[in-house]
Prior knowledge:
Layout: H1 12-26, H2 28-40, H3 42-61, H4 64-113, H5 118-121, H6 123-134, H7 136-140, H8 142-166, H9 172-197, H10 199-213, H11 218-224, H12 227-277, H13 282-329, E1 345-353, E2 363-371, E3 375-379, H14 386-393, E4 401-406, E5 409-410, H15 416-421, E6 423-427, H16 437-442, H17 452-461, H18 465-470, H19 491-502, E7 510-514, H20 522-535, E8 547-551, H21 555-558, E9 563-568, E10 571-576, H22 578-584, H23 587-598
Parallel strand pairs: 3-8, 3-9, 6-7, 7-8
Antiparallel strand pairs: 1-2, 1-4, 4-5, 9-10
Amino acid sequence: MSSPLTDDLPPGRQAMWRSLKLGWRAEPLLLVLAFATTVGAAIPDALFAIGLSVLAGAVEDSDRSAMVVAALVLGVLATLSWLLKTIGERANRRFADRSTVTIEAHVAHLQASVGGIEHHERPDHLDRLAVLRDQVFTLNHIYMSLFSTAGAVLRLVLTIALLASVHPALVLLAVAAVPTVVASGWASKVERRVQEAGASHNRLARHLFTLATTAAPGKEVRVAQVEARLRVDRRAAWDRWYRPLSRARWRSATVQSATWAIFGLAYVGSVVFVARGADASAGDVLLVLAAGSRLSSYVGQAATEANFLQGFWLDAARKLAWLEDYAAANRERADRPVPERITDAIRFESVSFSYPGTDRLVLDDVDLTLPAGSVVAVVGENGAGKSTLVKLLCRFYEPTAGTITVDGVDLGRFPAEAWRDRLAGAFQDFFRFELAAGHSVGVGDLPRIEERPAVETAVVRGGAGDVVERLVQGLDTQLGPTWPDGVEMSFGQWQKVALARGFMRDRPLLLVLDEPTAALDAETEHALFERFAAAAQAPDGVGDGRITVLVSHRFSTVRMADRIIVLDGAKVIEHGTHDELMAHDGRYAELYGIQAAAYR
């Protein structure tokens, strides 16, 4: 049974080796200590049965000296086993904490290092990443599980050797334990496949739970009175994920119970055999009782750890390796520096684009010219491809066909990070950085986040001065009501802060404004865009070639643009100035007339 979450994952052995190296880099000395103590604890633990056998023989022979020695040996073995286990557990726990930071930082870096955002938007990638996030704890416990497995195997070897010293036939007791190991591994694979097949249902259940329990959607949930529906839908999604998993667990539990029943019968038979048929001493019988009972726990521990390693660890390691390979495959192969200024234009040359996993063209054979130093407005109905055009300009995606050039150089030849260092802008789906207000603005140009004059200038540019004035501590005010002394702001106020953040950079090559003022009134938006347009016109009397791309539904705003592009059905159907498009009396004139009539 294949799964879209595992079909193209790297080979298991390679993935495990890569994850092991990552853990080693976290804390090598602590790792050595954890290994020595975890594996070392297996020796006194397994030898405890010998001490019991010697003690039983001493009791049987009424040898008081031997009894004292045996008791002392048992005490030393028990103390040593406890001490090594305690140190091993502490070392493993401390290593897990250290490796948690390393692994989570590694996963976050990998996702952030990918130039585009495809992995944040494709459902199959989201499912895979959601499983990986849930399994990060698995990667943290790789070495702990390996050491525990090594200790369990060592215990098994010593225990089998002890049993064989009583009678060679007792080795068959270990053979009777093999089905339990096989059944455990089989159960893990079955359950994991079912769990992965329902990953999207589990993700939906979590999403619905978030909708029902968090503040952001709270008002709409209550006004629409969909609380009951959310509960029902969440339960249904959870059932679609959990019921097949539950059935798989019942099947695996039945098989595993049968295999353990076989082992139990073999254990009872071995005790009876030694007690009655092997002419053994009381010490030998006690050794078989102790070693045999421990053999079952050692087999169980080895099976559990093997199940973890073969199942969860292998699965998590392969997904981590996939993310590493995905990030490497999408790493830049750029060979041209980003220009200091745009002297000619940014051009779309026969650009087509469809989102990965779909065949529908969102942009179809688009030819555009965005002249240096111009303000370009993009208009069109919802779904026409306006935001997609902006994503391509920001290099969140690469064109499916055609090229985008900057002064004749393919945009793909510039390093994505270097290109974005020269971008600025704001988006309608902005993020609320719940930091101090000054930092929430300053992250728009991270190297200058602590430069108060730069932050204050950005606040003025973004029209957020009135927002900052109302904050109790101004730019030092903590934003977000869930933090101590944090304040909540309206959606419009958050949007102004996002706008200010977009204006932290002084001289960007490209300024993109993708409907960033949807929560503001038309007059405020108009005043803001007048400032944007003025900023694009030769600051300090010297043109820097800055191109401003404005996406808006308000035609009273876009009419000030030097050039207006009309998208419809994934194609550019008109372009020109406001006066030219009105004279053309096409789609733009129609939409403008409809909107103007609404304000009369």
